[in-house]
Amino acid sequence: MFALSPLSLFYSVNILTLTHFQCFSVTSPAPSTVRPCTLQNRFQPAFTANGDYVIGGIFPLHYNQEMPDLNCTYRPPPVRCNGFDPRAFRWALTMKLAVEEINQSTQLLANYTLGYKIFDSCAYPLTGQRAAVAVLNGLSEEESPTCSDASPLLAVIGESGSAQSIVVSRILQPFRIPMISYFSSCACFTDRRSYPTFFRVIPNDDYQVKAIAQLLVRFNWTWVGVVRGDHEYGRFALQGLLRELKGTKVCVAYQEMIPLLYNRQKSSFISLAKVVVVFSAEGEMTPFLRDYMIQNITGIQWVASEAWVTASVFTGSEYYPFLGGTIGFGIRKGHISRLSDYLKTVSPENYPNNPLVKELWEALYGCSPYAPSASQLPLCTGQEILLVQHSAYMNTSSPRVAYNVYKAVYAVAHSLHNLLLCKPGVGPFENNSCAQSNNVLPWQLQHYIEEVKFKIAGEEVNFDLKGDSVPYYDIINWQKGTSGNIELVNVGLFDGTKAAGEELVIYEDKITWAGHQREVPVSVCSASCPPGSRKAVRRGEPICCFDCIPCDSDSVECIFCPEDFWSNEDRTICIPKKVEFLAYDSLGIALTVISVVGACLTIGVFLVFFHHRNTAVVRVNNSELSFFILFALTFCFLCCLVFIGEPTRWSCMLRHTAFSITFSLCISCILAKTLVVLAAFTATRPGDNIMKWLGPKHQRVIIFSCTMVQVIICAAWLIDASPYPSRNTKYERSKIILECSVGSSLAFWCVLGYIGLQACLCFVLAFLARKLPGNFNEAKFITFSILIFCAVWLAFIPAYISSPGIYADAVESFAILASSFGLLFCLFAPKCYIILLKPEKNTKQHLMGKEK
C-alpha cells in the first residue's frame, strides 16, 4: 500500500478521466506541428434526447469500481464499473420520465422541448469527474470537431454522493452551470463561496445529525459507535454529530472510517458498542457489511443515515439477521403517478443497444437477455420472476430519491419557464433586460432557480439563500416482511420547521429493534451505579465509562441518593423515603370521628328545630335563617374530611374552596340574623320603618351577595393558580411529605381575610345589640359565637405557619372543627335547652321579657 500525494492524485484523476482532450506536448512544438484538439475517448451516456434546451443527469448506476494499475509507465485503462444498481437506474429513468412529461405538457415550456444526457458516475469521485466532463462535451467529434465548443448545457441533475457532487460542482463552476442534487446532503454545500451554483432538494445534513442526536438522547443510548465513509459527506456528518452531542450524556465509543479501497477484517470493532451510527453510501457499505456478516456479528442496533436507509440492495432475507431493526432517517417520500407504468416499458426489446438495460435484466431476473453473454448467466426464457433482493425496483408506491429527482427536473423546467416569460424592460438582468430564448446562458437560468417556487404532488418546492430545501425526514425501521425479506416501515418523522424540542415524533409501539425485539436496546459503557455507591471515572476513558465503588466510610466522594430515596444508617445503600400525609391513622381517625359527630349534632339540631318550628323560640329567632346556618354548619363539619387522605388535584382544589364558601355562607347568615335582631328592637320606636328593608327577600339577598363575593374570589383562585398536590422533600430530608400547595398565597389569605371581615362585622353589630331588652337576647349569643370564632382563627394563623408537614393540615382541620362547634353551641345550645328541657319558657311572653 502507498499514499498518493495531492499532486500525483491530481494527475491520476486526469489520466483516468478519459474524456479529457489531448492538447499538450511534453516539449513546446512549433506552431506548424501543433496537432488538432480531438476527443481522446468515448464515454457513452446511458440515455440521450435532443431538445431546445439540454440538461445533464449524473447517477451512480454502478456502486463499485475496479481501479487500474497506476504505475505511469503506460496509458492506464479506464476505471471499470461493476455492481449494477437497479435503484439508481430507476432514478435515471425518473429523470427521463419527468422530461418526457414536461415536453408533453401544454402549460409548462409550451412550444419548447427539453433534451437530456444521462451519465454514470459509478458512485466514485474519479468516475464522477469523468461523467461531469463528458456531460459538458459533445458526444462525438462531429458535434464538436475542433473541441472549441461544448454542447449547450443549462443545468445538471446530480449527484447522489456528496463526494461526487463536490467534484462535479467544482468542474461546473467555471461555466456557471447550476446543478441540483437529489441525494447530496453534506453540510459543506451551504458555503456559497465554495459552491455558488449548487442546489439540492434533500435536506442539509445539519438537520439529519440534529435528528440523530435527538434519537440517541431519546432512547438513552449513551455509548455509541460512529462509522463513516472516506469522503466529505462522512467527515462533515461526523463533525456535526459530535457538535450536537456536546452537552448531552452520549459518548462516542469509536470513530471508524470505511476506506474506499476496503481491507478485510475492518469490521471487528463493531461489537464495542451496541448502537452504531453509519454515515455512508451503499456502495462503500457493501464490502463492509459483507465482512461484518462473515464474522457473524449480530445484535447491533444500526442507526442509518439517509444515504443508505432506503437502499434496496440490503433488503434481501440474508441481511435480516444482521441488519433487522435498523432505524434511520430517510428523505421524504412522494408520489409519481406514471412511474410504475413507465418502468415496465424499459426492456431489452425497446432498448436493444443499451448495455445498461441488459445489466438491469441480469440483475432483476438473474438471466441474460442476449446470447452470448460475458456474465455467463443463462439465457432468459421470458418466464423468470423478479428476484426478491431487487423487488424494490418495481415498488413505486412511496418513492423517495426518485421523487427528489422528479422535483429537481421540474425545478429546472419551472425556472426555465419563468425565464421565457420575462418581458423586456422589466427583466432581472442588466438594463432590465431578459435572457434571449435562443441563447439562454446557465447563469441566467440560475437566477430563476434561486427564486423558483412551485407545488408538486401537494408539496411546495423552493430553495433558501444557501440552496437548501425544506428539512423533513421520515423515520424508517427495517422490519421482517412476510417473505423473509426486509421491509421499510415508517415509524415517525422529523420536521425541522417545528419549534425546538417538537421536531422529532416517534411511534415507539411500531418499532422492531435489533434481534427482532420489542424492547428498546440498552447501549451504555457502564451501567448506572446502584444507590449507595459512587462513580469512579476510568483514567483515559470517556466520562460514560466508570466503576461503581461502594459508598462506605472511607469514600472520598459519594453519590447523592435519588430524590425519593434516603441513605440507611450505615450510609451504604439508598432506601425509599417514608411518605407522609394526613392519613386515616390515629390522628386522621380522630378528626374524622369529630367531624362526623359535629355533622350529626348539627343535623340533630336541625331536626329539633324543624319539629318545633311553630314554637316561640324557633319563630322568634327567624327559623329560615336558623335553617340556613345549620345547613352551612353541616358542610363546615364535613369539609374537614377532604383534608384527610392522600392529596390529589381535585381534593386540593376542594379543600380550601369548600371550606371558605361554606364558612362564608354561615357567617353571611349570622350577619343577616344580627341585622334582623338589631332592627327588630329599634323598629319599635315611633317613626322607624327599617324592618321593611329586612324582610325575608332582603335577607336572602344579603346572604347571596355576601356569599357570592367569596365564590368569585375562589373562582379567580382556581382559574389563575389553583391548589395542587406537591411533594415536600425540603422540610425533612428523610421523608416525603405529600401536601397541597395553595398555588397562590395571595388568594389563600384573601379567602381567609374575607371570612375575617365578615366575622368582624358580625361581632361589631352583635356587640352593639347585646343589651337589648328581652329574656332571650340573640345578639348576646351571636357576640359570644363570633368571639370564639375569631379567637380560633387568630390562633390558627401562627399555628398553621409554624406547623410542620402533615400537622399543618391537622391544624387547619382543628380550626374548622373548633370554630364550627363554637358557632353551633353558642347559637343553638340555649335554644335547644329551652325547647327540650324548659318547654314552659318556650313562649313569646317569656322571650320578650313580659311574663308576670
Automatic annotation (TrEMBL):
<dbReference type="InterPro" id="IPR000337">
    <property type="entry name" value="GPCR_3"/>
</dbReference>
<feature type="domain" description="G-protein coupled receptors family 3 profile">
    <location>
        <begin position="587"/>
        <end position="851"/>
    </location>
</feature>
<dbReference type="InterPro" id="IPR011500">
    <property type="entry name" value="GPCR_3_9-Cys_dom"/>
</dbReference>
<keyword id="KW-0325">Glycoprotein</keyword>
<keyword id="KW-1133">Transmembrane helix</keyword>
<keyword id="KW-0732">Signal</keyword>
<dbReference type="Pfam" id="PF01094">
    <property type="entry name" value="ANF_receptor"/>
</dbReference>
<dbReference type="InterPro" id="IPR028082">
    <property type="entry name" value="Peripla_BP_I"/>
</dbReference>
<feature type="transmembrane region" description="Helical">
    <location>
        <begin position="701"/>
        <end position="719"/>
    </location>
</feature>
<dbReference type="Pfam" id="PF07562">
    <property type="entry name" value="NCD3G"/>
</dbReference>
<dbReference type="InterPro" id="IPR038550">
    <property type="entry name" value="GPCR_3_9-Cys_sf"/>
</dbReference>
<keyword id="KW-0812">Transmembrane</keyword>
<feature type="signal peptide">
    <location>
        <begin position="1"/>
        <end position="21"/>
    </location>
</feature>
<dbReference type="InterPro" id="IPR017978">
    <property type="entry name" value="GPCR_3_C"/>
</dbReference>
<feature type="transmembrane region" description="Helical">
    <location>
        <begin position="746"/>
        <end position="769"/>
    </location>
</feature>
<dbReference type="InterPro" id="IPR000068">
    <property type="entry name" value="GPCR_3_Ca_sens_rcpt-rel"/>
</dbReference>
<keyword id="KW-0807">Transducer</keyword>
<protein>
    <submittedName>
        <fullName>Olfactory receptor C family, v3</fullName>
    </submittedName>
</protein>
<dbReference type="Pfam" id="PF00003">
    <property type="entry name" value="7tm_3"/>
</dbReference>
<dbReference type="GO" id="GO:0005886">
    <property type="term" value="C:plasma membrane"/>
</dbReference>
<feature type="transmembrane region" description="Helical">
    <location>
        <begin position="625"/>
        <end position="645"/>
    </location>
</feature>
<feature type="transmembrane region" description="Helical">
    <location>
        <begin position="657"/>
        <end position="681"/>
    </location>
</feature>
<dbReference type="InterPro" id="IPR004073">
    <property type="entry name" value="GPCR_3_vmron_rcpt_2"/>
</dbReference>
<dbReference type="GO" id="GO:0004930">
    <property type="term" value="F:G protein-coupled receptor activity"/>
</dbReference>
<feature type="transmembrane region" description="Helical">
    <location>
        <begin position="587"/>
        <end position="610"/>
    </location>
</feature>
<feature type="transmembrane region" description="Helical">
    <location>
        <begin position="781"/>
        <end position="801"/>
    </location>
</feature>
<dbReference type="InterPro" id="IPR001828">
    <property type="entry name" value="ANF_lig-bd_rcpt"/>
</dbReference>
<feature type="transmembrane region" description="Helical">
    <location>
        <begin position="813"/>
        <end position="836"/>
    </location>
</feature>
<keyword id="KW-0297">G-protein coupled receptor</keyword>
<keyword id="KW-0472">Membrane</keyword>
<keyword id="KW-1003">Cell membrane</keyword>
<keyword id="KW-0675">Receptor</keyword>
